[in-house]
Prior knowledge:
With 95 residues, the protein is an alpha+beta fold. The chain contains two helices and five strands; from the N terminus they run E-H-E-E-E-H-E. It has helices at residues 16-33, 69-80; strands spanning 2-10, 34-36, 40-51, 54-66, 84-91. Strands 1, 2, 3, 4 and 5 form a five-stranded antiparallel sheet that branches. It is globular.
Amino acid sequence: MREYELLFVLDPALDGDKKDELVETVKSIINEAGEAGEADVWGERRLAYTINNRTTGYYVVLPFKAEPELPKELDRRLKINENVMRHIIVCEDEE
């Protein structure tokens, strides 16, 4: 298994329960074929540029371990979720 880190930005207009629910949904997707770590919620921060007419976003960082196929599926699912404004999955270097 490789170690990855997922950073995703949620729509800040969502209420707190919906944000928590989305974080748990992402964790459950990861746990289907990997091991999700503890989510590091950065909260609402200002964006460098406007996305979907929003100037702020709700940032969450989530480390996880998985086989190389999982990030591809996770990327696909996050792209179709309208509440996820942006995301990036980074493979941590094995040194």
